[in-house]
Specification:
This protein is an alpha+beta fold. It has a single domain (24-161), classed as NADH Oxidase, CATH 3.40.109. It is 34% helix and 18% strand. The chain contains eight helices and six strands, in the order ααβααβββαβαβαα. It has helices at residues 12-15, 30-41, 64-69, 73-79, 104-121, 134-141, 166-172, 181-184; strands spanning 52-58, 84-91, 93-94, 99-100, 125-129, 147-156. The strands form two sheets. A four-stranded antiparallel β-sheet has the order 1-2-6-5, sandwiched between helices. A hairpin with a 4-residue loop joins strand 3 (93-94) and strand 4 (99-100). The longest helix is centred in the middle third of the chain and has 18 residues, at 104-121. The radius of gyration is 18 Å and the shape is globular. It starts with 11 loop residues before the first helix and ends in an 8-residue tail after the last helix. Bound molecules: flavin mononucleotide. Residues 18-19, 75, 128-131, 151, 176 line the site of flavin mononucleotide (FMN). Flavin mononucleotide binds next to strand 5.
Length: 192
């Protein structure tokens, strides 16, 4: 396996996270699901607004087919095997000021980051998807305009890459690289 992993001493739940496409048949229990959502719940947010919402569907359960149907084909072909799909939304209004919450998506990202760390620490995998049709999903679930539909999160237990369509198998075995810290971090002065 090609492994462009960090050589520094990261927490295992950060270093071990990746976005799986292969999921096993093992179901996610109510307790396991509640625990990863609880991790999201305790994220910080601007003015403690907690703008995030999660519409959770289970394979063969209510709403699952409609959410799956909203995914781009390239995502649907593997995401359909996962036991849980969750739509991640934000409420756009900061209630304390009755104004647009410009940090809503930022705060959702923090919550989903925590969800991912919790899931990884439990041996689960999660994969965020921007490749879906917000209009189609909004219509299917009659979601009011004040909510922004941001991502769909695939959650489950990582499975065998051999079960994926051929063109995705090699990708599943390869970890994605990262830009060097020197490109991302600027000390004292900014160099565009
Ligand atoms: C907001 C967001 C949208 C994404 N959309 C997709 C997607 O539509 N399809 C997909 O296969 N992966 C998607 N990804 C996964 C990224 O491609 C992945 O996180 C990135 O390549 C780094 O790989 P890693 O998560 O395995 O470290 C998305 C990730 C994020 C955070």
């Amino acid at each position: 396996m090609n492994e462009p992993r960090s050589t520094l001493g990261l927490l295992p739940a950060i270093a071990g996270r990746y976005s799986p496409r292969a999921y096993s048949d093992r179901p996610v229990t109510d307790e396991e699901l509640t625990l990863v959502l609880e991790a999201a719940r305790w994220a910080p947010s601007s003015m403690n607004e907690q703008p995030w919402r999660f519409l959770v569907t289970r394979r063969d359960g209510e709403g699952h087919a409609a959410l799956l149907d909203g995914l781009d084909h390239s995502n649907r072909i593997w995401a359909e095997k996962a036991p849980v799909l969750m739509l991640a939304l934000v409420h756009r209004i900061l209630h304390r000021l009755n104004a647009e919450n410009h940090h809503a998506r930022h705060d959702l990202g923090l919550a989903v980051g925590q969800l991912g760390v919790q899931a990884t620490s439990m041996g689960m995998g999660m994969h965020q998807l921007g490749g879906f049709s917000p209009a189609k999903v909004r219509a299917a679930f009659a979601i009011p305009e004040v909510y922004d539909l941001v991502t769909v999160i695939v959650l489950g237990w990582p499975g065998d890459a051999a079960g994926l369509p051929q063109h995705l198998q090699e990708r599943e075995r390869t970890r994605s690289a990262r830009k060097p810290l020197a490109e991302l971090v600027h000390y004292g002065r900014f160099k565009p």
